[in-house]
## 1
Amino acid sequence: MDYKPTIGLEIHVELKTKTKMFCNCLNDPEEKHPNINVCPICMAHPGTLPVINKQAIKSVLAVGKALGGKIAEYSQFDRKNYFYPDLPKGYQISQYKYPLIEGGELNSVKITRIHLEEDTGRLIHEKNKSFVDFNRAGVPLMELVTEPVIGSGKEAKNFCEEFQLILRYLDVSNANMEKGEMRCEVNISLSQISNLKSQILGTKVEIKNLNSFKAVEKSIDFEIKRQTEILKKGGKIIQETRGWDENKELTFSQREKEESHDYRYFPEPDLPVLKISNLKYQISNLPELPNKKRARFKEQYGLKDEQIEILISDKQAADYFEEVISELENKKYTQLAVNYLLTDLQSLMKEKMLSFGEILITPENFAELIQLIGENQITSRTGKDVLRIMIEKGKDPSLIIEEGGLGQINDESAINNIVKQIIEENPLVIEDYKKGKETALQFLVGQGMKKTKGSINPEILKKSLLGFIKVL
């Protein structure tokens, strides 16, 4: 018997605001010292009152607009009641009945809602002791819930990746999964193919706190396999919450799944109803989002799909590329620029562990280097050497070339002299070439490149060598 998976996602995102959701404590995910960014409000001292962070509201509205969701005319916060060591109030201020956003779509996946709540603290376990760090408690936390319409682990992974890109383009969150700034939960059930027409869904299982796109995909694939094997043996699926063991690549049972009524939601009495039509919550025009940028890069620059994806996946890279092209005198070198940017430059950046926001090479200097290579003023080999010096010292490429005497040798008499030296120093290799050994010619070209430190065009050198060898 065959089964069809039905998958829904819940994605939590820490918003990039200056302060926390309901108090003036710093929202600083890089803070290493525990319990520094805390106050009586986020620590739930008696008599304290929360105040809504307007920027957090605007961030959620921007996401809703980007995803084509319906912005609520009014919204309210609720108390979600449960007890856990990292929850200082004994309840979480969240949204239940009246979220900020309803509907929307991304990658053909329908979105149910987007709402706003506060994050919990963080538990730290050491040997036989556990500690609580409340720096994160009260940080604005956006939650997106999809409809249960996803059919595979790959589809879920693609959704999460595209959503992360949108968050970064909107600049509402860094959304680093490894730092817990974006956390995914999966709801998955299996239905018999024969029951699909009657819309009878299987028992839902939740997989909690997945912290990488790889984990999202693999946990779903594993859970589909696990549930299928149970059902085929006549067993029953238990409604529960499961975790993901990244090392063993399997899910494991954590606890029975709570229902919404278990949280005893009721309206937060200390916060007013939000009237979104109020001008203080209005959002300005959105920046260019990934999908539109993809289409424009294709049309405007004629880039290949794989090149576009690499650039789009890092907004800083896409911005840097466009600045380079704007500085490029001759636009026919656009493809040359993207080739050097995505291969040589990024290879050096990886080696030096630098981002596009940290490199010393200005877009103007990078464009100048591309122009010099394109116009054959320096060879490709020299260009790579100059680029390394640029990333290490941030110098102008023309200055590096001048100081190092790296300009391309174009003078015919100079080239002829170099060729004569190569022939005189390698008589046996010349004989090998005459006997039909093609690799001998490549060796001779290599000798010329070595002599000139890569400052001669290898094709010109090869042509000159052949001319001299022919008359020997």
## 2
Amino acid sequence: MELRQWTKTFAGGALATAMRDLNARHPWSHNDHFHSWILANLPERRRTALDVGSGRGELLATLSPHFCEVLGTDVDESMRQVATLRCTGLPNVSVTGDAPTDLIGDFDLVTMIAVLHHLDDVAGALKDVRRLLAPGGQFLAVGLAPPRSLRDHAWDGASIVSNPVIGFVKHPWPSKLGLQPPPFPVREPTMPFDEVREVVHATMPGANVRHRLGFRHTISWAKD
């Protein structure tokens, strides 16, 4: 049984309720948390960047000062509208609904945050990324995967324990709003971490795929 599911049944669900209330007092965005990781791993050449599944455009705005051109793509029209509004005043940022398969260009950076688990063809998406990257370009992704192995469960347990701690550090003053529903489309991940790693390594040999706190994993790969 997954740890998160176990907490819902332990002591009649009292543990799950206590953890939910604690997290609601100090909420934080698990996806936005990794923007600093992306900034810490930017390629040396920074002409163009592509963010696939750009959502509300927070990462586009974050990347804007570091690249000559930043392109965001998202299949959801409402998300594109929000991202366009978010990036108003940033002339080097544009947003499109084009799929990566329809894009052409040599990007120095391609990013994906919580996107791969939404896709039916992960291997095909990674091949598109490989095609779109310029030589020396960097692929940085943050993903989700359901826990299956003992290592997965260990990281899940560490994430459960650290989640309210990180929330308190980020937002020490208790929130009166509590946990809010995600303002973007949500899909539960189905591909386990070990399978994700196999698919990534088959397409991007030498890629670094690592578990992270916050119920996430990261993928980094540089194109030769």
